[in-house]
Amino acid sequence: MQTETQQKKSYAQFLLPVFVGVAALYFIVLAKAAIFPFVLSAALAYILSPMIKYFEVRGIKRTYAVAGLYIGAGAFLFLVVYLLMSFLSLELEALKQDWPSYAERIQVFVTKMNAKWVKDYPFLASLRLEAKLDHLLGLVPQLILSLLPMMTLLFIVPFITFFMLVGGAGILDYLVDHLPARHAEIIHHIASRIDGSLGNYLRGILTEAFVIFLIAFTGLLLMGLNYAAVIAILIGMSSLIPYLGAIVGAVLSSIVAYLQFGGAILPIVKILAFFTGIRFFDDWFLQPYIMKKAVDLNPAIILLALMAGAEIGGIWGVIFSIPVTCIIKEIMQIAIELQETEFRWKPKPEPTRISIPYT
Amino acid sequence: MGLLNILSHIYDEEILAKLTFLKGIKLFDGIKKRQLIHVLESLQERTYLKGETLFAQGDIGRALFIVFSGKIALSRLDPVTQKSSVIAQVHPGEFFGEMALLEEMPRTATAHATEDTKVFMLFKIKLESLLFARPAIGVVIAAQLAKILSARLRAIIEKPIAE
């Protein structure tokens, strides 16, 4: 009887946490769109937190460290974004004007190729490539302009991030403080392991994307290619997704070069050589240096994660897929280790024994 | 005077107290105060209330604990008599659980707070990243750790002779 009551008591202690967890999950599902800027802000706060800690351990109070970082970085970023936006708006405007003529030239090129292919392989006619391309080309300017509303996130996210940074890891600390004390060591251990690999990955990939953006922007500007800023930004952003940066750069720049230089081959060859160079520089120098302490993911796993991310959350799903995979991999590894050690799946590890006595 | 007032608002005196405290820890002997900032960055703080258990004998150890304030009792269960007895009291400035930094092996004693106690935890993974990212600091800690373990080993072996 007593054991039964004890068992009931031990189940009852999980009621509140499970209820809160389910309610939180239900809320997230209901308010998915509203939660999204908060997820981005949490990610940004996490990336910036080492900078705050840098000042904090040097004696600057957290609120002043966050305010200082915002004033300094904010002024710098505002200037960069302002310059970039004025540069970009000119380029986007030019692209909007030039697009019909570009679209026509692409269409002529594809029509010619299509006619040749259909002549050689009649079954291709059933695919109606021409009509599909026509539809796609009409969509491109709309697609680019539809990205502009996302710019509002640029204002909302830093605002939310500020308060998250000032609060610090307060909520997490509160939760850990209210868990049984004996589990605190293992919880902090798991947190520091995830922080180790995920933090290094995120900071590494952002640095990598920025360096690739700078190289691409300088290179394309020197080659005299139109829309260098737009292309470089797209390359930088797509570098957040493994393997994509240089491919996007090479394809986009080649199309622009083809249209700009009237179909001349040499500029395209130069651009392809430039992006091959970037790819090798990234693989041989940048990644080994920047990502040396980040989690090591198998290329097949990366591809699976990217495809699953696209399926679940579209473009944002793709961007978040790798960091989430890092967390899952680390949790899986820790879970397996715990199964082996805590639940004795494996025989107890033998301590190092030395036959020679202490002398 | 006004500037000093502003500075005292911005500056956190507690950090200075923590750095001074770490300077006195044997494990960090030989590390300059300026470098101790990086050590402080790697430490995790936590307060345990009186009576709370930090870890139990047989749990896998993953961190070293440095007592900042309060008191911790270490007790060991005798496998023959099944009786638990306190083997040591850990006071501010002292540390325990250093074996976890070398091997993730079961703890050899149970630790519980006999007062409200604030501790700093140094996890194995953080020591490893200190060793790689800041070898000048990591090497000093590793050498001190070796010295401390050697001293504890000597104490065990010399005990019967002394008695």
Give a quick summary of the entry:
Chain A is mostly helical and 359 residues long. Chain A is 80% helix and 0% strand.
At the first level of CATH, the class of chain B is: Mainly Beta
Work out the strand percent of chain A. Answer: under 5%
CATH third-tier fold name of chain B? Jelly Rolls
Provide the spatial order of strands within the biggest beta sheet of chain B. Answer: 1-8-3-6
H and E string of chain A: HHHHHHHHHHHH
Could you tell me which chain pair has the largest interface and how many residues each side has?
Answer: A-B, 29 and 36 residues
- The CATH superfamily name of chain B is Jelly Rolls
Describe the biggest sheet of chain B?
4 strands, antiparallel
Report the C-alpha radius of gyration of chain A, rounded: 27 Å
Overall pLDDT of chain A: 78
Percent of residues of chain A in helical segments?
A: over 70%
Q: Strand content of the residues of chain B, in percent?
A: 25-35%
Would you mind describing this structure in some detail?
The complex is a heterodimer of chains A (359) and B (163). Chain A is an all-alpha fold. Chain A contains twelve helices and no strands. Chain A starts with a helix and ends in an 18-residue tail after the last helix. Chain B has five helices and eight strands, in the order H-H-H-E-E-E-E-E-E-E-E-H-H. Chain B has a single domain, classed as Sandwich (Jelly Rolls), CATH 2.60.120.10. Chain B is globular. Helices cover 42% and strands 25% of the residues of chain B. Chain B has a four-stranded antiparallel beta sheet with strand order 1-8-3-6. Chain B has a four-stranded antiparallel beta sheet with strand order 2-7-4-5, with no helix packed on it. Chain A binds chain B through residues 53-54, 56-61, 64, 176-177, 181-182, 184-186, 188-189, 192-193, 196, 293, 341-342, 348-349, 351-352, 358, and chain B through 9-12, 15-16, 37, 40-41, 44, 46-49, 52-56, 59-60, 62-63, 103-106, 121, 123, 125-126, 129, 132, 153-154, 157.
